[in-house]
Write a structure and sequence with these properties.
The chain is α+β, with helices and mostly antiparallel strands. It has helices spanning about 5-15, 80-85, 205-215, 270-280, 285-295, and strands at about 20, 25, 40, 50, 95-100, 105-115, 125-130, 135-140, 150, 160-170, 175-180, 190, 195, 225-230, 240-250, 265-270. It has a five-stranded antiparallel sheet, with no helix packed on it. A four-stranded mixed sheet has the order 13-10-15-14, with helices on both faces.
Length: about 300
Amino acid sequence: MGTYETDLAAAKRSRTAWGCTCGADNPATYDTCHDCGRPSWTCATCGTVNPSARSNCNECDGSMPAELLGDREEGFEMTWEEWIATQVGPRVVGGRYNHGDAASTYEVLAIERGPRPLGTWPVWDITVRYEQDGRETTHCTGWDARRDTVVAQPPAGGEDAWRFTADVVAVDPDGRVLLIERRWEPFTGCLALPGGHVDPTDKDSREAAARELAEETGVRVDAADLTPIGTFDAPGRDPRGRYSTDAYLARVPANTVAVADDDAANVRWVDLGTVLEDGSLAFDHADILRAAARLLAGGEGSHSA
């Protein structure tokens, strides 16, 4: 075990030392100041260690302590919803918000997941346009209810509004299909195909399908390699309203590793024939799988319902 002096010297060489407000420097592994005993906190966004007297990160200006997230193995102290609230808050694409002064009103142009490893809670990169000078920027500043305010929200879609999604049937050479266990309602806990909404930043549903597959399972495929299965838009296919989905087939190599993330609570490789006989899939995903099976067998795969 190293001494304070040797630990500090190593931290300074690796540029991980943190400075307390009392003037003392400390190794990143110290959760309290060596000299005055004041605690530290670690920024959840960039990992910088900061003295407790600072309410915002010294490196990236983030305000979320990683200590609040706890350890994945021991269970997070925050809920997933609480984490999203600290990151995104009420912001949606097309909405107008204010940082707390008259010159900082902005419109949200895009909300995208930031680059963090699978298995960790995500941050979001939010692209905004400031009304004062038209300047556009992308940042990961979290929503602070003590400072930030809603200026205007875009009108919510009515009951008859159409929503567009993309789903992926990922199949390996052994005839197994990759399914997720849904984290949220509707159909919480049920098996479903990886997929999700087509975002404004997606080029098309094919690109959205590849993105959703990567975000939910960690399996990455080239969007150009996806084979269309068909469009599924029958009334009642989704209890939340009118949803139309474009389904795609992805042929993946044997022993492809999948890791649950984003909206997926778990992932499973399941024999295609077995899951069709089981009849427990969410939404109309059994219909999509039957169309995929016909496509794989060389029969008619295209479908519109």
